[in-house]
Design a protein that fits this description.
The structure is a single chain. The protein is α+β, with helices and mostly antiparallel strands. Helix content is about 15%, strand content about 30%. The chain has 19 helices and 50 strands. The strands form twelve sheets. A seven-stranded mixed β-sheet has the order 1-3-2-4-11-5-12, sandwiched between helices. Strands 8-7-9-6-10 form a five-stranded mixed β-sheet. α12 packs across α17 and α15 crosses α17. The longest helix is centred in the first third of the chain and has 15 residues. The protein is globular and about 95 Å long. It starts with 6 loop residues before the first strand and ends in a 7-residue tail after the last strand.
Length: about 850
């Protein structure tokens, strides 16, 4: 049975409170709307009701701070299904978890116009000069309390040079439309969104602001996080954003986005870059705003640069729901510029700097100098001891142009460094000078440190990129030996370095799928963590072991999207080789969807020759989590877990007395000592941090055989989950919460000493005491980086601070131009051949952006006279 017209609730606080608080029927859809789109919505709503049978209960209200405001109502969990407001405000609500992640849809653009009382003379506002004259001649001016009014009062008047004159005769209108004030004769001129002016009787619309003074706003709709009718709510939003609704939207003075909610990838053919732009980008980049590059500016970039920005640039959180083909289609649609120029000739090494010409005994291969993943470099290979650290000074800085993150640890071999980048450029650098021997372009971002395979003059580098490709490259020439894909899944993400043994490279696989789940339409989840043994000679696969069973359909979400499981248990870090027992050890992440498995959040032993699982030691059962849980989206599993992945490798430590201890640090903030001779039996467990989604041990510990050194993140972040809501770069992080380095005795896990994190003084965006970066140990010292940009060295005996350098500054780089340092996260420092190498810049979880690799060496001592 078709229900009748929209029940419209006025803005009166009493009436609004009564109407909104009343429970809605099962087929009622409660809509909160404020601002320029309201007139279009009220005209379109009856059509939706007639077509669907749903009744729309509507509250026209504001984004203010009162009891009847939209934020207050959502926080009280008053009945609400759809929210229609200015886009920036909607994004703020989404970041606070009040709007379902991934449901925001841009509806229309709105410009600012000017109105006078009906019958009054219309002033000329066709140019900036004409507008200035009209404002100076007017007796009184009114503007709204919304985004348009803030622009007029704080920017436009200043720009016209009349702010002082306007202060005495202009006023903000808080509780009604500006047009109503103008209609009563209480203001001669009134500024507001055009659509809001057109809906008011008793005024004459003069026209829009001049083009060079106009400020365009975008109005968007989203589904309330606590909606009980998410399916009908999404259907209403789709109707409001459809091509059929566009003529009505345009008639109210707005510029519709038309079919914004059309599927980005149709059932037939390739994904549409244009549709992806409309859905994910247009709401911001079609606006006129000083800090947002326009679509025209984006078109001058190369597709490669845009793709890099989506992968690991400022837009990475926006792009989380986009599949790889969609990202590539979007970059191709937008980017019309040419690729960035090649390295300048001055950056290349001259004939006097020969590649691989140094000492063979001072290298660092992959994640750790040895297959035990202990990240300990003895003095002979390090070329440094604790006594040398106080004399370290910057020798050179290498920049990654166009990047905002520097996340790939270098591999060192015979005086040459090999390093990847967010742009996918892999470079061979001279260790002493930073000049470039060769450059290789991968298909995607290269994060994992390269592992050296072979010996003598036949050295190869084996590594992966972040989109699933595996490479073997000649270390001397940079030419590819072979390239393969080890996983067919679209969301494959390879972050861990390889372990190499007996002609095989062991490739760990994790996934982007955890963040794909932000999109309520995404069928979560089907990725399975795995280890693939690849033959070094030709890239063929010797064996492959999946860590969960093949997923099957398990049900549907609240919005009708199919769900699948089991999934997840990705391997983020490098496997650890135990030749004595013929196994490799891997650590795993959480499950993304139900059912939970016993292989998530676990340490596992696999047979080197066959990949057969020998044993599994799970530490956090039932940890089923994905990024939809940050905003409690539909794809968030029921009874979701704490997201306590193992993100770092297990360490195989030969303890005093000759006993082997397998040590693993977890995001839970707990470090475990396991007995590899007894199928991973727990010997001890010690808490070193509070733990959390971005807490505990993140990227890696170190051990000198006597002690294990564990740094923790425990960063204090603003509200919101990783997916979509987390700020990318320069977030307001807690200046005192997080960090700390603990030394544990390897035999029993007892604490030997603790060095607390260093507070950010003064507090500044992107700064935190958190120490998520991997730790590195040398004889007598432990090096640990922090999100405040500092690399610090501590005495391994008692935790005394030995050396401290702030990397978060500007640098003149050896490859031309300037680079910038930022937060230290991810890969830790590499020590080899008498030098310390460290990346600086990691904005992904709110830290400070940066794009440099820094090289430090001891300052030469003056000879005694």
């Amino acid at each position: 049975m078709i229900r009748s017209a929209v029940r419209h609730v006025a803005a009166s606080c009493v009436l609004v409170a009564l109407a909104v608080a009343a429970p809605a029927a099962a087929d009622d859809v409660t809509v909160m709307t404020s601002g320029a789109f309201t007139a279009a919505y009220l005209e379109l709503a009856p059509r939706f009701e007639r077509a669907t049978g749903h009744t729309l209960v509507t509250a026209t209200t504001s984004m203010g701070v009162g009891e009847a405001s939209i934020p207050s109502r959502l926080q009280r969990r008053d009945a609400a299904d759809v929210v229609i407001i200015e886009d920036a405000a909607l994004q703020e609500l989404a970041a606070s978890g009040l709007i379902l992640a991934g449901t925001r849809v841009p509806l229309a653009r709105s410009g600012i116009g000017l109105a006078v009382r009906a019958g009054a003379p219309k002033p000329d506002i066709s140019s900036l000069d004409a507008l200035r004259r009209a404002l100076l001649q007017a007796r009184s001016v009114a503007y709204s309390a919304s985004v348009s009014g803030r622009y007029v009062s704080t920017e436009l008047f200043q720009r016209l040079g009349i702010a002082e004159q306007m202060a005495a005769k202009s006023r903000r209108i808080d509780r009604e439309r500006v047009g109503a004030v103008v209609a009563r004769g209480e203001a001669e001129l009134g500024f507001q969104q055009i659509s809001e002016l057109l809906a008011v009787p008793g005024i004459d619309y003069v026209g829009p602001l001049p083009a060079d003074a106009q400020r365009t706003s975008v109005f968007s709709a989203g589904v309330a996080a606590h909606s009980r009718n998410a399916g009908p709510a999404r259907a209403l939003i789709a109707w409001l954003a459809s091509a059929e609704a566009a003529p009505v939207v345009a008639r109210t003075g707005l510029e519709p986005f038309a079919a914004q909610t059309a599927s980005v990838a149709g059932a037939q053919g390739a994904p549409s870059g244009e549709a992806a732009y409309a859905k994910y980008c247009a709401a911001c980049h079609d606006q006129t705003a000083a800090r947002i590059p326009s679509r025209e500016a984006l078109s001058k970039m190369s597709p490669a640069r845009i793709l890099r920005t989506l992968d690991f640039g400022p837009m990475m959180s926006v792009a989380y729901p986009l599949k790889r083909p969609e990202r590539e289609a979007l970059a191709a649609f937008l980017g019309k510029g040419t690729d960035e120029p090649a390295l300048p000739p001055s950056a290349m090494c001259g004939p006097e700097r020969r590649i691989l010409a140094g000492n063979d005994g001072t290298g660092w291969s992959g994640w750790s100098p040895g297959p035990d993943n202990a990240r300990f470099q003895p003095r002979q290979r390090a070329g440094l001891s604790a006594a040398d650290l106080s004399r370290l000074e910057l020798k050179w800085a290498f920049g990654f142009p166009g990047d905002v993150t520097a996340f790939a640890a270098p591999t060192a071999l015979r005086g040459t460094l090999f390093i990847g980048s967010a742009a996918g450029a892999v470079q061979a650098l001279d260790g002493q000078t930073g000049c470039v021997h060769w450059q290789f372009q991968a298909n995607g971002p290269v994060r994992a440190a390269m592992t050296i395979a072979g010996d003598g003059d036949t050295r190869a580098l084996v590594f992966s990129d972040q989109i699933g490709w595996v490479y073997s490259v000649d270390a001397r020439t940079g030419r590819a030996n072979w390239t393969i894909r080890v996983e067919a899944h679209e969301a494959t993400r390879l972050t861990g370095s390889f372990a190499v043994h007996d002609g095989l490279a062991f490739v760990p696989a994790a996934s982007w799928e955890e963040t794909r789940s932000i999109d309520p339409a995404y069928m979560c989840c089907t990725f399975r963590g795995s280890i693939t043994a690849v033959r070094l000679r030709d890239g063929s696969v010797a064996w492959k072991t999946y860590l969960v069973d093949e997923p099957k359909k398990t049900g549907t979400t609240a919005v009708g999207t199919d769900t699948f499981g089991p999934s997840g248990a990705g391997v983020w870090s490098a496997p650890t080789i135990d030749t004595a027992r013929g196994v490799l050890y891997v650590t795993t992440g959480d499950n993304y969807s139900h059912p939970a498995t016993r292989t998530s959040d676990a340490v596992m032993a696999l047979e080197l020759k066959t990949g057969r699982v020998v044993w599994t030691r799970q530490t956090t059962p039932g940890d089923v989590y994905n990024s939809a849980c940050g905003g409690r989206g539909p794809n968030c599993p029921a009874a979701s877990g704490p997201d306590f992945d193992f993100g770092s490798s297990a360490l195989l430590v030969r303890a005093p007395g000759g006993r082997d201890v397998l040590v693993a640090g977890q995001k839970s903030g707990v470090v475990y000592g396991l007995d590899p001779a007894k199928r991973g039996e727990v010997l001890w467990q010690t808490r070193v941090g509070a733990g959390g989604t971005n807490g505990g041990v993140q990227w890696g510990m170190a051990s000198d055989g006597r002690r294990v050194y564990a740094a923790v993140s425990d960063v204090g972040r603003q509200p919101g989950g990783i997916g979509g809501a987390a700020t990318v770069g320069n977030a307001q992080l807690h200046p005192q919460q997080g960090g700390g380095l603990t030394a544990l005795n390897v035999l029993d896990g007892s604490k030997a000493w603790f060095a607390p994190g260093t507070p950010c003084v003064p507090p500044r965006p992107g700064c935190s005491p958190a120490q998520p970066a991997a730790v590195t140990a040398i004889d007598g010292a432990v090096l640990s980086g922090a999100m405040d940009g500092h690399l610090r060295a501590f005495s391994s005996a008692d935790g005394t601070l030995l050396w401290d350098v702030d990397t978060a500054r500007r640098y003149d780089t050896v490859n031309g131009g300037q680079g910038t340092g930022g937060s230290l996260d991810g890969a830790g420092p590499v020590v080899a051949g008498g030098m310390v190498f460290v990346n600086s810049g990691y904005p992904r979880f709110g830290g400070m952006p940066g794009n440099v690799l820094l090289a430090f060496a001891p300052k030469k001592q003056e000879p005694k006279k």
